[in-house]
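pls design
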C-alpha cells in the first residue's frame, strides 16, 4: 500500500463541527446498531492485519492506516507518502485527515461525516456514522444506480421456471423493500438463479424448503 499525507492538510474541522449539529438522534441510534455489520464488511475487505471486532474497531482506526487503506481500495486513491508507523497524535491525525479529505470529495452528506479528532478520540457515534457514509458513497450509491437493471436480469432468469418477481420489486426495488424481501427471503429464487446460471448443480434444489416457517429453516435455506 503506497499512501501519503499532503503537507497542506485538508482541514474541514470547523465546517464539520457546525454541520455535525444536524445529526439526528434517530440516525445516530441507527448508526450505532450497524457496528457489527460494518465490522463484518471491513473484515471481508481484508485491509487490516487481523480481524476487527466491535470492541477493537475504534481503537484500530485511530492511527488512520485502516481509513487510508479503505480509500485506496474503494475510492481508487493512491497516496505517495504517509505516516507508516504513527504513534504521536499529530501523525495519526495527519493520516486520518488525508483519508477523510478524499471521502469529502465524493459528494457526501456533511451531517453524517466526522472530524479527524472524532476518529482519534474514538467517538463511536460519529465515527460509525462516518463509516456508514463511506460505505454509502463507495458501495451503495452504485448499487442503487444499477438496482433496476440487476433485478430485471434476475427476473429474466426466474421467469424461465415460473418464479418471476413481484412487479413492484422489478420497477422500484429500492423503495419496495417489503416485496424485495418477500421475493427472496425463502432462498428459493436465489438458488434457482445459481442453478440456472450453472453456478451450482440443480440437485441442490432438493435441499431447499419450499415454505420455511421458522428462522432456523430460513437460515438453512
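designed seq:
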Amino acid at each position: 500500500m503506497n499512501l501519503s499525507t499532503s503537507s497542506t492538510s485538508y482541514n474541514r474541522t470547523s465546517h464539520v463541527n457546525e454541520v455535525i449539529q444536524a445529526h439526528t438522534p434517530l440516525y445516530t441510534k441507527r448508526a450505532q446498531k450497524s457496528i457489527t455489520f460494518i465490522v463484518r464488511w471491513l473484515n471481508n475487505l481484508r485491509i487490516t492485519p487481523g480481524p476487527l471486532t466491535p470492541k477493537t474497531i475504534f481503537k484500530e482506526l485511530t492511527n488512520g492506516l485502516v481509513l487510508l487503506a479503505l480509500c485506496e481500495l474503494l475510492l481508487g486513491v493512491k497516496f505517495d507518502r504517509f505516516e507508516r508507523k504513527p504513534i504521536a497524535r499529530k501523525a495519526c491525525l495527519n493520516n486520518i485527515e488525508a483519508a477523510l479529505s478524499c471521502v469529502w470529495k465524493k459528494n457526501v452528506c456533511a451531517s453524517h461525516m466526522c472530524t479527524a479528532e472524532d476518529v482519534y478520540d474514538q467517538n463511536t457515534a460519529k465515527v460509525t456514522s462516518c463509516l456508514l457514509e463511506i460505505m454509502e458513497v463507495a458501495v451503495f450509491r452504485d448499487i442503487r444506480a444499477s438496482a433496476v437493471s440487476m433485478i430485471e436480469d434476475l427476473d429474466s432468469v426466474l421467469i424461465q421456471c415460473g418464479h418471476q418477481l413481484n412487479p413492484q420489486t422489478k420497477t422500484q426495488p429500492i423503495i419496495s423493500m417489503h416485496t424485495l424481501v418477500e421475493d427472496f427471503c425463502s432462498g428459493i429464487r436465489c438458488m434457482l438463479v445459481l442453478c440456472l446460471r450453472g453456478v451450482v448443480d440443480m440437485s441442490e434444489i432438493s435441499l431447499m424448503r419450499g415454505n420455511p416457517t421458522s428462522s432456523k429453516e430460513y437460515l438453512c435455506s
